[in-house]
Amino acid sequence: MKTVIARRFSFESAHFLNDRFGKCKNLHGHSYKLIVEVSGRLTDGAILDFSILKKIVWDEVISRLDHGLLNDVIPFPTAENIAAWVFDTLSAALARYRDDLVLERVILYETEDSYVSVSKGE
């Protein structure tokens, strides 16, 4: 049996893309929603305290992206590239915290109706 915990976050950021993306070439912002799913060894009936997961995500991701220009952190900040950056950043941070923690999936909503999902590869 595999158990996964998840927590949802939100942040506000601006970005711009190239001409290929039409109106998105202009500086604009989004209210992002981020869902982080983590699995790991059950210790005393839990994988990880939700407050610890919150601190890791805040320290590693939200504090760097919230109310900022994504282009300053991620070279070409499409939703796919932002989600991949979050996944890579959190995978490394979780491994530093405890070696059995696995980032299973990151879901990033750029708008209420549009999202990207990145999960660990096989």
String of helices and strands: EEHEHEE
CATH domain fold name: Tetrahydropterin Synthase, Chain A
Q: In what range is the share of β-strand residues? A: 25-35%
Number of helices: 2
Rounded Rg: 15 Å
CATH H-level superfamily title: 6-pyruvoyl tetrahydropterin synthase/QueD
In this structure, how is the largest beta sheet organized?
A: 5 strands, mixed
* Spatial strand arrangement across the major sheet: 3-1-2-4-5
Total number of beta strands: 5
**Total separate domains:** 1
Class of secondary structure makeup: alpha+beta
Principal-axis shape: elongated
Report the span from N to C terminus: 18 Å
Q: What share of residues is helical?
A: 25-40%
Please specify the SSE layout and strand pairing.
Layout: E1 4-15, E2 28-39, H1 50-65, E3 68-69, H2 79-97, E4 102-109, E5 115-119
Brief sketch in words of this structure:
With about 120 residues, the chain is of the alpha+beta class.
Protein described:
There is one protein chain. By secondary structure, this protein is an alpha+beta fold. The chain has a single domain, classed as 6-pyruvoyl tetrahydropterin synthase/QueD (Tetrahydropterin Synthase, Chain A, 2-Layer Sandwich), CATH 3.30.479.10. 29% of the residues lie in helices and 32% in strands. The protein contains two helices and five strands. A five-stranded mixed sheet has the order 3-1-2-4-5. A hairpin with a 5-residue loop joins strand 4 and strand 5. It is elongated, with a radius of gyration of 15 Å. The mean pLDDT is 95.
